[in-house]
TrEMBL record:
InterPro entries: SusD-like_2, TPR-like_helical_dom_sf. It comes from Parabacteroides segnis. It comes from the Bacteria. Keywords: Lipoprotein. This is SusD/RagB family nutrient-binding outer membrane lipoprotein. Signal peptide: none annotated.
Length: 503
């Protein structure tokens, strides 16, 4: 494990020199692309899947706030819990296409026909599916088949593919990647997620297929069942050690934990712009969840359980007193624990083993696969709590506390299938904290946990939790015809329009 971390550290410090402005300059011409090595390209795309802007605005400011994990009184970047339609909604789209997607596609172009880099090509295909499913899950129909090749094809106005076709492509790429992975062949270059571990990449790829299969349950039930079965049989994540994450390194902004960096550089602990929501805090307190001590703290770092307080969703500075008559000041409310989640060397998490266990528990209850749903649920709880050790000593949850939590018998107390599904969905919501993209996507798919929408008076989505992000405004001038076709196919470009798998 130490050797693995040292390898990652070396790669990340190397990347600090790569992510300068001239990196983009070198990557704009197909004639000079040969000067860019595949390894640094892969490292760049893995590390920059979540930068400080996306961590603050897209993940925390909208995804986590819309599903009531976080809360804010802000009306701009942190307006997600009021369902306001700000320009922040387009940031993920423009950032991913202008940086990560084009560089990953260039990597694929470089290694696709290189017989000496089969494993690197396989990993790139799997990672491409991960990136595009995050984009399409937020927006619906998006550029896919023509995306990322502008400088090779001179097509700077890519068409928007239907989400159903995108998902078919994602599945195909993962299956191809899995079929190519071979431990007897050359190592993967530049992999900061698994250090080139082929076995763990296979488990990650199959776990993604499981995620995709469950996400498609309403849109394509037959394909959903088939994918879930294939994924489980192929071998999904087995333990907390299979977590997909970037282990950050303190010292340079380009290698530090983006969430911790943005809190530090923007003074967010002092300003109080980001708080734990009352809904989320109430769940942690009502179940005596030991993850509270890892997730939550007052701005001064105090983690005492009886002092933690969540901020109600859907209010601003002028209206908060109606939501909480006891309100005096923002420092009274809990935020992210600076001794764990906000450490500059804390990891960015892309997928956890607990999610995989919970998806299997759900699939069993729905008759997709055979097995013990309770066992998978309890495996998920244990894995999620053990996983917190990635934050160091302050994140370690004693085994006794884990067993005390499980001894409440929450699964047994859920007497109907619907109650059990709600419990699984609620645990998913807690276990994917700080992976708000998945918390938001899974809530849209399942409706769990049951949330009471906020009713901010001036919101166009008052009383209805949004179902997607709106396209960036500039797309209507830069790629007008194609975005218009997407709107015609998918439905109005509104936050109330459901994506394909959610209809």
């Amino acid at each position: 494990m130490i050797r693995y971390i040292l390898k990652i550290t070396t790669l990340l410090f190397t990347l600090a020199f790569i992510t300068s402005c001239d990196f983009e300059d070198k990557n704009i011409s197909p004639n000079s692309s040969g000067t860019i090595k595949p390894g640094p390209l892969l490292t760049y795309t893995q590390l920059n899947t979540s930068n400080e802007g996306l961590a603050k605005r897209t993940q925390v400011g909208y995804c986590m706030m819309m599903v009531q994990q976080t809360a804010s009184l802000d009306l701009n970047e942190m307006a997600g819990d009021k369902y306001l339609e700000t320009e922040t909604l387009g940031i993920f789209f423009t950032t991913m296409y202008s940086t990560v997607i084009k560089n990953l596609q260039e990597l694929i172009n470089l290694v696709e026909d290189d017989g000496t880099m089969v494993n690197t090509y396989a990993v790139a295909l799997i990672w491409k599916s991960y990136l595009f499913h995050r984009i399409t899950d937020l927006y619906g129909d998006v550029p896919y088949s023509e995306a990322g090749n502008g400088y090779r094809t001179q097509n700077f106005y890519p068409k928007y593919d239907r989400q159903s076709d995108i998902y078919a492509g994602l599945v195909s790429d993962i299956e191809k990647g899995l079929s190519l992975l071979d431990e007897t062949k050359e190592p993967v270059e530049g992999d900061v997620l698994y250090g080139g571990d082929i076995t763990r990449w296979k488990r990650f790829g199959n776990s993604l297929l499981l995620r995709f299969g469950m996400r498609m349950e309403k849109a394509d039930p037959a394909q959903s069942r088939s994918l879930v079965t294939k994924a489980v049989q192929g071998g999904v994540m087995q333990s907390a050690g299979d977590i997909c994450m970037v282990q950050h390194v303190e010292g340079k902004a380009s290698t530090e934990n983006p969430l911790g960096y943005v809190f530090k550089s923007h003074g967010l602990l002092v300003s109080g712009a980001i708080k734990i929501s009352k809904t989320f805090m109430d769940r942690l307190k009502s179940t005596n969840d030991p993850r509270m001590q890892v997730y939550c703290a007052l701005p001064d770092g105090d983690t005492a359980r009886d002092k933690q307080k969540g901020l109600p969703n859907g209010y601003d500075l002028l209206t908060i007193s109606s939501g909480d008559p006891t309100y005096t000041s923002l420092p009274d409310y809990s935020t992210f624990n600076p001794a764990t989640l906000l450490l500059l060397n804390a990891p960015t998490i892309y997928m956890v083993h607990a999610e995989v266990e919970l998806l299997q528990a759900e699939a069993i209850l729905k008759g997709y696969i055979s097995g013990d749903a309770k066992a998978h649920y309890e495996n998920a709880v244990r894995s999620s709590m053990q996983q917190q050790a990635i934050y160091g000593d302050a994140g370690v949850i004693p085994e006794q506390q884990i067993e005390e939590y499980l001894s409440q018998g929450l699964f047994e107390k859920a007497t109907t299938t619907e109650e059990k599904l709600n419990l699984i969905g609620t645990e998913f919501w807690v276990a994917t904290f700080l992976n708000g993209y998945e918390s938001y996507a899974n809530w849209r798919r399942t409706g769990y946990p049951r949330l009471t929408p906020a009713s901010y008076q001036s919101s166009p989505n008052k009383g209805t939790i949004p179902l997607r992000f709106r396209y960036p405004t500039e797309e209507y001038s830069i790629n007008e015809d194609n975005v218009a076709e997407a709107v015609n196919n998918q439905g109005e470009d509104k936050m109330s329009t459901a994506v394909w798998w959610d209809k």
